[in-house]
Amino acid sequence: MPPDERDAPENLLLLCAEHHRVADRQENTYTVEEMRRWKREHEAQVHQQMETIAGRMTFAELEIVADAVASSPITAKSGFNLTAVRAKMTTNQLSDRVANDMSVGMVGADLVQNYVAMRASHDADFPDRLRGGFMTEYDRLSGLGLRGDGLFLALRSFAAAAHHDLTRQVAGLAVLVHLFRICEVFEP
Questions:
Q1: How many Å separate Cα 11 from the centre of its chain?
Q2: CA–CA separation, 66 and 108 (whole Å)
Q3: Rounded to whole angstroms, how far apart are CA atoms 172 and 136?
Q4: Residue 73 lies in domain
Q5: Residues 132, 69: contact at Cβ < 8 Å?
Q6: Hey, is 79 helix, strand or coil?
Q7: Of 32, 131, 139, 146, which has the highest C-beta tally within 10 A?
Q8: Residue 166 belongs to some domain of the structure
Q9: What DSSP assignment string belongs to 164-187?
Q10: What pLDDT shows up at residue 69?
């Protein structure tokens, strides 16, 4: 398998160092289908946990991730443009795997919209800084050649400041999906 296919999100199974060595050393013990089943089961469990967290998210979680992203200088163009999410996903070559993340992020997207509006009433530049932080990272990642699911997943990690706390990941995902939905973080 070529390296770019091997490193594609759908082909990655991340294991701790100990279990990674065990699986690699016993290549005839663990079949590809068994490892794919592990991945599907784990992703389903994480998706369920993220949906639960998204339903309980508050401004406090959003403030943490939004402040981290909005600390960048404003570099993005002003103005929001509403684009149909499904059409935008197709344009950006995002798969059904990302659609699962989108559905979790959509649960909190309205809360993010309210949060951004509240922050803007006290800090008029906040929405532009938030968008600018994402646009700067989007441009950097695009320049590295990331596209499609890989680009979305990298931005999701950026939104959560690469934090492993699932609550922060869900909050970051909600901010990313909100911006995906209302402005041009990805191609229109």
A1: 18
A2: 13
A3: 16
A4: 58-182
A5: no
A6: coil
A7: 131
A8: yes
A9: --HHHHHHHHHHHHHHHHHS-SS-
A10: 61
Residue type, 182: I
By the 8 A CB rule, do 133 and 127 touch? Answer: no
Residue 25: how many CB atoms within 10 A of its CB? 8
Token readout for 52 is 């639960």
Q: Please say whether the beta carbons of 85 and 183 come within 8 A.
A: no
For residues 157 and 144, is the Cβ–Cβ distance under 8 A? no
40 is written with which tokens? 């599907």
The tally of domains found in the chain comes to: 1
* Helix residue ranges, H only, the chain: 3-6, 17-25, 32-56, 59-70, 85-91, 96-122, 126-143, 148-159, 166-182
- CA 157-11-50 angle, to 5 degrees, is 40
Q: Tokens standing for 183?
A: 């402005």
CA distance 121 to 43: 38
The CA distance from 15 to 33, in Å, is 16
Whether 160 maps to a domain, the answer reads yes
Please state the pTM of the whole predicted model. Answer: 0.68
pLDDT, tens only, 74-123: 443 434 443 477 777 888 888 888 888 888 888 888 888 899 999 999 98
Q: In angstroms, rounded to a whole number, what is the distance separating the alpha carbons of residues 109 and 88?
A: 16
Asked, for residue 100, whether it belongs to a domain, the answer is yes
Closest CA to 57 of 95, 113, 9, 15: 113
